[in-house]
Amino acid sequence: MLSLLLLALASPAVASIIHNRAYDSPSFRVPQLGTSRDAVRRNHKRWEYYDGKVEFPYNVASGDPESDSVILWTHPVPTTDDPRPVCLEYQVSKSNDSWSDIITADQVWTTQDVDYSYKVEAKGLEPRTTYYYRFANCADKENVSPVGRFLTTPKEDDVEVDKLSFAVFSCSNYPYGFFNAYGNAAARDSIDYAVHVGDYIYEYRGDGCKDYYSCYGDGRDIGRVPEPNLELFTLEDYRTRYKQYRSDEDLQALHASHAWQLVWDDHEVADNSWKAGSADSNDTVAGTQYNTSFTERKANAVKAYFEWLPIRTVDTDDGLRIWRSFKFGTLADLFMLDTRQYNRDLTDLYYNTAEVRLLENDDARSLMGGRQENWFYNELKNSSERGAQWKLVGQQIVFANLVSDNVDAWDGYKANRRRVLDTISQNNIDNVIILSGDSHANWVSDITYDEKEGYNTVTGDGSYAVEFAGTAVSSPSSLGYNSTLNKPLPAEQYIQTSTALINATGNEELQWSEGATRGYFELHLTRQDATAVFYGIDDVRTRHSDERVLATFVVEDKANKLRRPLADGQVTGGVLADRG
Ligand SMILES: *[C@@H]1O[C@H](CO)[C@@H](O)[C@H](O)[C@H]1NC(C)=O
Ligand SMILES: *[C@@H]1O[C@H](CO)[C@@H](O)[C@H](O)[C@H]1NC(C)=O
Ligand SMILES: *[C@@H]1O[C@H](CO)[C@@H](O)[C@H](O)[C@H]1NC(C)=O
Ligand SMILES: *[C@@H]1O[C@H](CO)[C@@H](O)[C@H](O)[C@H]1NC(C)=O
Ligand SMILES: *[C@@H]1O[C@H](CO)[C@@H](O)[C@H](O)[C@H]1NC(C)=O
Ligand SMILES: *[C@@H]1O[C@H](CO)[C@@H](O)[C@H](O)[C@H]1NC(C)=O
Fold it and tell me: How far is the CA of 233 from the centre of ligand 3 (A)?
C-alpha cells in the first residue's frame, strides 16, 4: 500500500496521460475505438519522456467552447525517432504579449498510440472572453507551438449578449482546390466561431472517378495529390489523410484564429455512408475491400477523426454519438446533428436508387435514429422554454423539399422531416434556422410541410423555419462540372440550371439557387434579426483571397421566413425567386 502510494506521488505523469482526450473515442461500446490508457502505461513503464525538440507542423486548434472551458489541440512531431512519450504543457492566457500571466496550464503526455495527437480540455475560464493558448515542450520550455485564439461562450443565463456570428463551411476537398474560403474567413476576422457541417476530408484516391460527384481530378496540376493516393480503409490511411489536410495553411489559419464546432458527413468515413455501409463498402464478402469490412473501416475513420479534431466526447455509453448542443446565453442555441453515421437507415448507394425511392415515405425510416430524434425534439422544446432566441440546427444534407428528389438528402427520409416540422409547429417554436452543407451548391429556402398547405409562395407566410445551405469550400458544383477539363461549366449554364430549379413546380420553398461558386456563408445574429451573407469564390485552382458577396438574406425575429424582397432584390450570382 505504502509503495503504491509512493509510486503514485512520484508519478505525476499518471494523471497527465489521463488528461489527453485523444485516447478517448466517442464510445466505449465499440471495441476498436479509443486506446486503453492502461496499455499505454504498460508500454512506458519507466515514465520517462522524450527530451529532444518537437515541431508543430499541424499548428494548433480549438473547439467546442463552453462558457468555462474549451478543447485545445495540437500534434507535436519529435525531431528524432524516439518511442518515448512526448510531454507538452498547454498554456492559456488573456494576452499574447508576454506569456507571464498564464491562467491555466498543465503537463500532458501524448504517445505513438494516438499518433502523437494531443487534445486537452482547458477549464476554469471566464465566459465571453478571448483567450490565447500555446503548447510548450516540457523538456524545453523555449520550444513552443504557434499561438491560437478562441472565445468562450456566454453563460447560459446571459440575457445581455445581443450579437453573435458564425461562418459555416462544408465539403473541403483537397485535390480539387485550395481552401481559400478558410483563409479568407480567418483574414476578415468578422466571426466568433467557425461551424463545419461535414465532409472536412474526402476518402477518395486521386483518380477515383466513379461518377461526376466523386470525380475530382487527381490534384496533380495544383500540387495537391491525395496522400495516401488510395481510397482510405485503414487507421493509418485516415491518419495520413488528416496530416495532409492539416498541413494546409488556410485551414491552419482558421483553426488557430477561432474555436470550431464540427460534425461529420459521409466522406469522413466513406461516400454515401449510412449506419451499416456506404456506396462501396459493407459487411458482406462482396462489400469488403482491402480485407476491411465497413464496420472496421468506420471505426478506423472515427478514431482518426477523434484524434485530429478538437471536439468533445459526448457520451461514451452511446454508440458513435457526436450529436450535441451549445448554448450562447439567451441569444442562441446550436444543435449539431449527425444525419450520417450515427443511425441512418438505408440510403441511395447508386445501385439501389429505385429501391430507396420506394421507401422514402416509410414512417419508420429515420435519418437520425430514434435516440437522436428524441433528443433533438426535446432540445428544441427546452430551448424554446428557456427563452433561447435563435435555434440553429447545424446538420449535413439539404432539408428543403425539392423536386430534384435526392433521396440521399432529407427528401429520402420524409417522415423524419415531418417529425421535425411537427415538433416546431405543435410547440410554436420560433426562429429555427437550419444550416446545411453536403450539396456543393447554395440553396436558401423557407421551410414548410411537403404539402405546402397554408404556405403563401409570394409572401412566405406559413413558413415554419428557414434553411441556409452553403456551397462547398472546394468540391465541384453539384449543378454540373466539366470533369474532362477539370473546370466549372460556363457561367450561363449554372444560371439555366438554377432558373429551372427555382421555376420547377414543387420547389416553391426554394428562394435562391446558386451553383457556380465555391465558398461559405456567415450568419450574424442580433436580437432583431439573423443575417446570412453568402461569399462566392470563382476559382479554387489557385490560392488567393478574391471573393465576393453573392447575396445577403435576412430573417426577422419570430418571422420564421425569409424577409421580402428577398436579398433586398439584389444578388451578384445565382437566381432569386420572383413569384410576386
Ligand atoms: C501572437 O504573438 C505572436 C508574436 O508577436 C504573433 O506572431 C502571433 O500572430 C500572435 N498570435 C495571435 C493569435 O494573436
Ligand atoms: C455490398 O457491396 C457490394 C459491392 O459494392 C454489393 O454488390 C452488395 O450488393 C452490397 N451488399 C449489401 C447488402 O448492400
Ligand atoms: C487479404 O487477405 C488475404 C488473406 O490473408 C491476403 O492474401 C491478401 O493479400 C489480402 N489483401 C489485401 C488487399 O490486403
Ligand atoms: C429538457 O429539460 C428537462 C427538464 O429540465 C430535462 O429533464 C431534460 O433532460 C431536457 N432535455 C434535453 C434533451 O436537454
Ligand atoms: C467539357 O469540355 C469538353 C471540351 O471543351 C466538351 O467537349 C464537353 O462537352 C464538356 N463537358 C461538359 C459536361 O460540359
Ligand atoms: C420562371 O418562369 C417564368 C415564366 O413561366 C418567367 O417569367 C421567370 O422569369 C422564370 N424565372 C424565374 C427565376 O422565376
Answer: 13
